[in-house]
Amino acid sequence: MVWPREPPPRPPPPPKTAIKIGDKNHDIDLSKIPYLSAFVDFQTRAQPQLTEFIHGPIPLCDVALKGVESGYRHCFRALSTDLTQYHTLCNTYDFLCVDILGELTIDNIKYELTIDDIKFELKRAKINEDRCGMPLYDDYRVSRNAAFRLLYLILLGEFKDEVKDSVKIFSAVRFVVSDHKRFMWKTRKIVRAAYEDRFVSSAKQRASLDRSAKTSPVNLGAEYYSDVSTELWWSEPPENDYATDDSDLRYGRTEVNRDDDSDF
After folding, report:
1. 8 Å CB contact between 89 and 60
2. pLDDT in tens, 74-114
3. Lowest-confidence pick of 22-36, 120-134, 173-187, 204-218
4. pLDDT score for 201
5. Which of 72, 93, 183, 200 could form a disulfide with 98 if both were Cys (CB 3.0 to 4.6 A apart)?
6. What is the DSSP string of the chain?
7. 204 touches 174 (CB < 8 A)
8. What are the phi and psi torsion angles at 168 (to 5°)?
9. Number of neighbouring beta carbons within 10 Å of residue 260
């Protein structure tokens, strides 16, 4: 009999600093938020005896901190489908100097949108090999975080070739809009709204998005709640999660041909 492998020990949680922002108290990992790290460093140098850090209000700070701590996908859950709110949130991330994109390009983001499919298949193959009997589940955390990065890129990104890059952006947007299982309805709606606000879309592109967005009105309510059930609610992988490291994954797959941009 082959016994399941023991998961590696988890690293200790990073130290957090108590900061009052506006009228709310927060415990924040400053390593992830350069602006607040610099703010605390300056306050400490200016007043070494200071024990309480107080900062003025920051728009949508609660949502921004939740995204940094638990994954940017949670921003979609916290906000409505008002595009203005997402402009405000992305500007807050920019103000806090949070590096949402890093070195990611639109091609990297398109890959991340489908990476969980690969992890799922590799996990299935590994289970069959080890015969561990570990239950399978749909875990789309990487893809849903990538959807927010796509939104951020659309709203605040700078493009060398607006026309050429808009074609790649559209391909990614179409994938998000078409995948009703992977992305909750608010995500799909706001990503499309951001695209149509930033870029001029053709009639053919709009028709393609309309076809991708169609869903049965009867299932809309069930779909809203199923979005909650398809995601694990902890921010870190469970102890029995043997997911393969993302660096080992090279190719994505999807029913939508993401590389076929010639028609749009």
Report:
1. yes
2. 999 999 999 999 999 999 999 999 999 998 999 999 999 98
3. 120-134
4. 82
5. 93
6. -PPPPPPPPPPPPPP-EEEEETTEEEEE-GGG-HHHHHHHHHHHHH-TT---EEE---TTHHHHHHHHHH-THHHHHHS-S-HHHHHHHHHHHHHTT--SSTT--HHHHHHHHHHHHHHHHHHHHHHHHHT--PPP----HHHHHHHHHHHHHHHH---SSHHHHHHHHHHHHHHHHH-TTTS-HHHHHHHHHHHHHHS---HHHHHHHHHHH---HHHHHHHHHHHHHTS-SSSS--TT--PPPGGG------SS-TT--TT-
7. no
8. -65, -40
9. 9
Structure token digits, residue 191: 């990503």
Single-letter amino acid code for the residue at 97: C
Amino acid in position 66: K
Contacts 24+ apart (CB under 8 A), 152-160: 152/90, 152/93, 152/100, 152/101, 153/101, 153/106, 153/109, 154/191, 154/194, 154/195, 154/198, 154/199, 155/86, 155/87, 155/90, 155/194, 155/198, 156/90, 156/91, 156/94, 157/101
The one-letter amino acid code at 243 reads A
